[in-house]
Automatic annotation (TrEMBL):
Organism name: Trifolium medium
Source domain of life: Eukaryota
Annotated Acidic residues bias: 36-47
Name of one Pfam family that matches: gag-asp_proteas
Region described as Disordered: spans on this chain: 36-55
Protein name as catalogued: Uncharacterized protein
Amino acid sequence: MQLRRDKGLCYFCDERFSHTHRCPNRRLMMLQLAEDDEESLDPDPPEDIPNSSTGEEIQHHLSMNAMKGNSGMGIIRFTGTIGNIEVQVLVDGGSSDTYLQPRIAQFLKVPIEPTPKFQVLVGNGQCLTVEGMVRQLHIQVQGHELIVPAYLLPVAGADLILGSSWLATLGPHIADYASLSLKFYQLGKFITLQGEKQASPQHSQLHQLRRMRNTNAIEQCFTIQLVEAVSPQDTLAELPDDIEPELALLLYSYRKVFHTPSGLPPPRDHHHEIHLKEGTKPVKVKPYRYPHSQKEEIEKM
């Protein structure tokens, strides 16, 4: 290496070195690592570093069917009562806990206990926040009383959702999703709850709408009206075939004039007068406050 430096030669070829020198036979070297030698290069594996980006796993969840209220596999629907209010109850094994609509608890004024704020993962990937808890919720379903703890969660599928935590308290039970029935043993007797099929939309009477409004059971209200579609009239299609092109173009340019009026004419800045006869008095004359018999005598004065 020192000999090449004394002679002014390049380190990689036999040519003289300068600041503009480029080796004629430059090569690209590639180092390939064999799979067998991968473990030997790192004898001391690094310690496990906890991933701070992944937070605590959400343990509470609500299935998509329960969120939308659809009847599907693993869903049984009942009609029950809480107090004097009729509620829709869903038994859903895909949901982790029992959830109650907050408006039901607020209307019945049941005791609500504050709970630590936690998120519930719903079926569409979003998270809802629990607003409290009812420690003992009394529900009447088909002549049987159920006492369950329920979290307050603003879901839209049903009024009350009985999840897997409630099913676990039943012990051995039989859930037949084909016949929509739930059988379990409670308080020394065998209980059978027969599910209901999802009802189709029905007409509501005025008193039913008032009751739903008073119980805050209406989330949104819409009015649907049937409007007949009116096809626009083609002015050129109604014109005769032997009309002059200039006249047809003029009629098409002012086609809005021939449309059927849909309202009052627009206001004008200037109102034109109608001259009947020169010297004519106004047609509208205010009436006199005295009789017509005294009018002539007053005018003579």
